[in-house]
Amino acid sequence: AQSVAQPEDQVNVAEGNPLTVKCTYSVSGNPYLFWYVQYPNRGLQFLLKYITGDNLVKGSYGFEAEFNKSQTSFHLKKPSALVSDSALYFCAVRDLDNFNKFYFGSGTKLNVKP
Amino acid sequence: NAGVTQTPKFRVLKTGQSMTLLCAQDMNHEYMYWYRQDPGMGLRLIHYSVGEGTTAKGEVPDGYNVSRLKKQNFLLGLESAAPSQTSVYFCASSLSWNQPQHFGDGTRLSIL
């Protein structure tokens, strides 16, 4: 079955420390991967995407993500966390061989403490 | 810059009532989507549209209908609301299939 897994419901990190939010995917074809962020009572906002090319993708607000085909992962990272990064983060995948299928992970709540 | 606008923002219905959620986008996007967000389950695609006059089923279409009579609008209908349809509904749009989706702020729907 095609899906996206975010194994951590919550990630806690101190301000200034690096952060990682994990995502693994399973699709039958080539993946097209996204990260979105959701602040309270708001819709999702696009952070970054990977379709092809360099495995390290840079996005908005200093976030980046690394595509690892062998591990079928697309982890979100930031070198130095800010309190304002606290939000709900969603990984999503589209199967390029069946591009109308689009799946979101269950979300990871990031808490950045001062 | 309105982007994607959803109306209403909140609604409480009784079981069996019907209602329509409206989504409007001003970005001339071809693709539009309706999702529901439930705790611990992320977003699940209900229906989507790849252009004016077209609609297609997503992952959880049962109990919902949609229409895309105008390019800028995508309507989600509940013909006979059930408590299991209590959720937060998000509309999104994108320029094409490989472009990021832009989301509205959601409609919080409670069915008693």
Protein architecture, described:
The complex is a heterodimer of chains A (114) and B (112). With 114 residues, chain A is mostly beta strands. Helix content of chain A is 0%, strand content 57%. The radius of gyration of chain A is 14 Å and the shape is globular. Chain B is globular, with a radius of gyration of 13 Å. Chain B starts with a strand and ends with a strand. At the A-B interface, strand 5, strand 6 and strand 11 of A face strand 5 and strand 10 of B.
Structural key phrases:
heterodimer, A: 114 residues, mainly beta, Immunoglobulin-like, six-stranded mixed β-sheet, four-stranded antiparallel β-sheet, B: 112 residues, seven-stranded mixed β-sheet, 0% helix
Judged by helices, strands and strand pairing, the structural class of chain B is mainly beta
Number of helices of chain B: 0
How large is the radius of gyration of chain A?
A: 14 Å
Determine the oligomeric state from the structure.
Answer: heterodimer
The residue ranges of chain A in which pLDDT falls below 50 over 5 or more consecutive positions are none
Largest sheet geometry of chain A: 6 strands, mixed
Rounded radius of gyration of chain B (Å): 13 Å
Give the second-level CATH assignment, the architecture of chain A: Sandwich
Q: What fraction of the residues of chain B are assigned to beta strands by DSSP?
A: over 45%
Structural class of chain A: mainly beta
Provide the CATH superfamily of chain A: Immunoglobulins
* First-to-last CA distance of chain A: 40 Å
Strand content of chain A: over 45%
Write the layout of secondary structure elements.
The complex is a heterodimer of chains A (114) and B (112).
Chain A: E1 3-5, E2 10-14, E3 19-21, E4 24-26, E5 31-38, E6 44-50, E7 56-58, E8 64-68, E9 73-78, E10 87-95, E11 98-104, E12 108-113
Chain B: E1 4-7, E2 10-13, E3 19-25, E4 31-37, E5 43-49, E6 56-57, E7 65-67, E8 73-78, E9 87-94, E10 102-103, E11 107-111
